[in-house]
Amino acid sequence: MKLALFFSLMLTAGIASGQDAYEFYSISQHNNKAGMYVLGTWALTNIATGAYGWNRYDGSQKFFYQMNLMWNVVNLGIAGYAMYRFSQVDLLAMTPADMLRDHVKIENLFLINAGLDVLYMGGGLYMRHLASQGHRRAEMLKGYGTSVILQGGFLMVSDLVMYVIQRSHRLSYDPSIFSLNLTPEGIGMILRF
User: Fold this and answer.
1) Which of 120, 110, 105, 104 is closest to 158 using CA atoms?
2) Residue 127: how many CB atoms within 10 A of its CB?
3) What pLDDT does residue 14 have?
4) How far apart are CA 143 and CA 63, in angstroms?
5) Model confidence band, residue 12 (pLDDT cutoffs 50, 70, 90)
6) How many Cβ atoms from other residues are within 10 Å of residue 68's Cβ?
7) Does residue 64 surpass a pLDDT of 50?
8) Helices (H), strands (E): how many in the chain?
9) CA angle (79 as vertex; 78, 85 as ends), nearest 5
10) Position 166 pLDDT exceeds 90
């Protein structure tokens, strides 16, 4: 009797863990979509203001707006592609392990991107340095450099915020410490600690 109760509790814990995984992954996807909406909104705003400023201003300001426009065409493409990929996810075809693996992959991608964003800002600073040294294309380098610093700074903050949100979400995910796997070869029990 006690053994039957134990296996019944174990089986229930395993099923609950699977259900929790779907909720966990749905929230993860919701967070990622929100991040892509922010990136897309930033991109559209910069494309509009970039087109205006590119046409309106001269000198380094013209190049600043020009780079903002070009940079954010790429950002808009990234946000659009990510939203398309999210729409292609079939939750029912994924196992809880697949969901966690995908979540961790995207979480790590945000952290890697934040590192790349630092490099972008460094490149922008270098362009501004070259401009201050009397380079023959000083106006362009100053405008482009300022834009790259701004865009890299926004992306770094955005990527770090998304990383912290997704990491916190993963760390708060508390699947059952017990799971019972029924396979043709027999019954397997996993105890996580």
Assistant:
1) 110
2) 25
3) 40
4) 5
5) very low
6) 27
7) yes
8) 4, 2
9) 90
10) yes
Alpha-carbon distance of 123 to 125, in angstroms, equals: 5
Single-letter residue type at 92: L
The answer to whether 139 and 60 are in contact (CB under 8 A) is yes
First to last CA, the chain: 27
Q: HEC string of 147-171?
A: HHHHHHHHHHHHHHHHHHHHHHHHH
At 148, list the tokens.
Answer: 């790259």
Placement of tokens 């990136």 in the chain: 39
- In this structure, what token pair is assigned to residue 187? 């019954």
User: Measured in whole angstroms, how far is the alpha carbon of residue 187 from the centre of its chain?
Assistant: 38
Phi, psi at 89, each rounded to 5°: -75, 130
State how far the Cα of 160 lies from the Cα of 112, in Å rounded to an integer.
Answer: 10
* Amino acid letter, 12: T
Average pLDDT of span 165-193 = 65
Mean pLDDT value across residues 168-187? 65
Q: What is the pTM of this model?
A: 0.79
Contacts (Cβ under 8 Å, ≥6 apart) of 42: 72, 75, 154, 158
Q: Which two tokens stand for residue 47?
A: 């494309």
Quote the pLDDT of residue 91: 87
In the numeric block, which tokens belong to residue 128? 């501004």
